[in-house]
Amino acid sequence: MITWLQDRYGTADVVHLIDRTVPHPGAGEVLIQMGAVGLNSADVRIMRGEPLLVRLAFGLRRPKTPVPGRDVAGTIIEEGEGVELFAVGDRVVGELSTAGGLAEYVIASTDRLVPVPDEVDDLTAAALPMAGGTAWQALDAAGVTAGSRVLVLGAGGGVGTYAVRLAVQRGAEVHALCSARAIEAVSGLGAASVADRAAGLDGLPPNSFDAVLDLGGRAPLAALQRLVREGGTVVGISVGENRVGPVGRMLASALRSIGSRRRIRPLTATAKPEITGQLLALAASGDLVPVIDRIYPLDDAGAALTRIDGGGVVGKVLVRAARADGD
Ligand SMILES: NC(=O)c1ccc[n+]([C@@H]2O[C@H](COP(=O)([O-])OP(=O)(O)OC[C@H]3O[C@@H](n4cnc5c(N)ncnc54)[C@H](OP(=O)(O)O)[C@@H]3O)[C@@H](O)[C@H]2O)c1
């Protein structure tokens, strides 16, 4: 089978295609014939090993799991010992704990998997887990419900487009700021307003939002805090893209929240199959349609990683099983 592999940290050039034998699943695992993989900015951070904190979790010198790709959808073709909840032929999706998705066949632990409804194709399913799950957990962290007034800053990427759509689904009044290239796509998600984030935050009314979701991690915390009303919450989904780095940003968020009625909560989202299940149900009913930036064949997945690394994606970058020649 063909698989992408990286044996050191770096740009997409370090990820290369190899041929290897198809693995067999161990206890509690299944072998999936990959149908589609959803890539996330997390895949690129792990590929690069940046920020350096990433290497503490994923391997000091090289990635412990050398095959990138965490969000995988496909069909089970072999079961390991003790697998009861799934059977050969089932279509499943999940956010894998140790990546490994960019390959024709993928081993997955069943506790990460969710069945895919017939109405949902593999590409749609693979677009959901990490980005949709992060947006969902951010909305929960901010307590977004019907009637909440929500600002999504940096709404055009994978997590951002879901944050807008899922907040609208909850009945919130959503205001989105995104890069100019994403305005058209974000405008289709049901937000009350969509504007170019290049205009900055100064023109926005202070004390007016119940929740601000920050996808950029660059805006001054004081400016974000100023936008929420008393009792409102800023959720820092991205914390790393600034001078002080992730730890500094988290520390500053904690300090600014002490004694404040406008809390800043840095988010650490985790894989939650039950949320993936809810996202699939929304996709099956047509209420959640992922925004797709581009779809690459498996043998061109290096270009997909480069695409994310270059910035400026609108929605999700996906990889499909077929090779470029259609096989
Ligand atoms: N906390 C967690 O657990 C968690 C989980 C997943 C992802 N994340 C973080 O969330 C961010 C988005 O992830 P993703 O996978 O959706 O990445 P992505 O698809 O590559 O999207 C990048 C996002 O960053 C935004 N952005 C870029 N420059 C910005 C700026 N100067 N100001 C405001 N927004 C800016 C973009 O908004 P525009 O459309 O406006 O350009 C876009 O939404 C990443 O920083 C990622 O590390 C955090």
Automatic annotation (TrEMBL):
InterPro entries: ADH-like_N, Chloroplast_QOR, ER, GroES-like_sf, NAD(P)-bd_dom_sf. Residues 10-319 form the Enoyl reductase (ER) domain. SMART domains: PKS_ER. SUPFAM superfamilies: GroES-like (SSF50129), NAD(P)-binding Rossmann-fold domains (SSF51735). It comes from the Bacteria. It holds the Pfam family ADH_zinc_N_2. This is NAD(P)-dependent alcohol dehydrogenase.
